[in-house]
Amino acid sequence: MISWVYKNEDAKKGDIIVFQYRTKNQWLVKRIADWPKNKQSQNATYFVLGDNSKASHDSRNFGGIERDKIVGEVKLVLLGINNKNQFIEGSYLQKIQ
Questions:
Q1: CA–CA separation, 17 vs 31, rounded Å?
Q2: Helix/strand/coil (H, E, C) string of 47-65?
Q3: Are the C-beta atoms of residues 71 and 15 closer than 8 Å to each other?
Q4: Which residue in 9, 59, 68 sits closest to 30, CA to CA?
Q5: 29 with 16: CB under 8 angstroms?
Q6: What's the mean per-residue pLDDT of the chain?
Q7: CA-CA distance, 83 to 36, in Å (whole number)?
Q8: Kindly report the CA angle at 63 between 38 and 27, in degrees rounded to 5?
Q9: Is 44 left (phi over 0), alpha (psi -120 to 50) or beta?
Q10: For 19-51, how does the pLDDT look when each residue is reduced to its tens digit (9 = 90+)?
């Protein structure tokens, strides 16, 4: 996670971010997406979605994320050796580019 990346620039669509959710000890990882057409005028907040849309708890449930809640950007995800088979075609886990 890169924690300084958004100090000088705004987060953008497609970025995978870590942000504080409810308390300082509770963090979530989500991807920034466009606001739905019926909710586009949200003041300075980011619409975030989980990659597993059927099971994700995200902005569709709790609304937008304020910039000051963003802790950093995810650039690399490491999985343990027992999870190596989860990178299969059609799965929700995809390599981050």
A1: 6
A2: EEECCCCCCCCCHHHHCCE
A3: no
A4: 59
A5: yes
A6: 78
A7: 34
A8: 150
A9: left
A10: 998 877 888 999 999 988 777 676 789 999 998
pTM (two decimals): 0.70
Give whole-number Cα distances, 82 to 40, 77, 86, 87, in Å. Answer: 41, 14, 9, 12
Percent of the chain surpassing pLDDT 70: 70
pLDDT of residue 9: 81
| Long-range pairs, 59-64, Cβ under 8 A, ≥24 | 59/30, 59/33, 62/21, 64/35
Binned at pLDDT 50, 70 and 90, residue 72 comes out as: confident
When computed from its CA atoms, the radius of gyration of the chain, rounded to whole angstroms, is 14
